[in-house]
């Protein structure tokens, strides 16, 4: 197990293994791991800013500040504008905030599973393979389908 050098700090102790530090949102550069304490504050600021911008642009529809076409456009695309502005701010500030890892291909997470999920109400061979609560919650679906 490889440990950090004494001048590197991770969680209050340099006796922490590198594997533990890299798992905990720490930046690993040149043998040192430096924790960024501003990540939580920046995440809260990004959330609050996007909510405030979106809410304000949604309310601008009822004001008289711009022509009606501009107000309608800002109101309709308020969420997209807010997300775009806060994403630009996140990249300009330079604080490493966690991002969503998007896979490169669209496929089921488990290779043995089909795309279509079968159910016991339709296919009786799956009756004993599902938990009991699945059948309890999906049993009212069959009378609903009889309407059609």
From TrEMBL:
It is a multi-pass membrane protein. The keyword Transferase does not apply. One of its GO terms (biological process) is regulation of intracellular pH. The chain crosses the membrane at residues 39-57. InterPro entries: HCO3_transpt-like_TM_dom (IPR011531), HCO3_transpt_euk (IPR003020). One of its GO terms (cellular component) is plasma membrane. Keywords: Membrane, Transmembrane, Transmembrane helix. It is found in: Membrane. One of its GO terms (molecular function) is sodium:bicarbonate symporter activity. Residues 17-134 form the Bicarbonate transporter-like transmembrane domain. This is Anion exchange protein. It comes from Caligus rogercresseyi (Sea louse). The lineage of its organism: Eukaryota, Metazoa, Ecdysozoa, Arthropoda, Crustacea.
């Amino acid at each position: 197990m490889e440990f950090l050098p004494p001048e590197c700090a991770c969680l209050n102790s340099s006796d922490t293994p590198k594997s533990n530090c890299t798992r905990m949102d720490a930046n690993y550069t040149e043998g040192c791991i430096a924790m960024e304490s501003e990540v939580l504050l920046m995440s809260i600021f990004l959330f609050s800013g996007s909510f405030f911008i979106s809410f304000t642009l949604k309310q601008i529809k009822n004001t008289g500040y711009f022509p009606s076409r501009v107000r309608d456009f800002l109101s309709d695309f308020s969420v997209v504008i807010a997300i775009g502005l806060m994403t630009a701010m996140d990249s300009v500030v330079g604080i490493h905030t966690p991002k969503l890892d998007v896979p490169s291909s669209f496929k089921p997470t488990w290779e043995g599973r089909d795309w279509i999920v079968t159910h016991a109400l339709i296919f009786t061979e799956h009756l004993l393979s599902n938990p009991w609560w699945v059948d309890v919650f999906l049993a009212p679906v069959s009378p609903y389908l009889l309407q059609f």
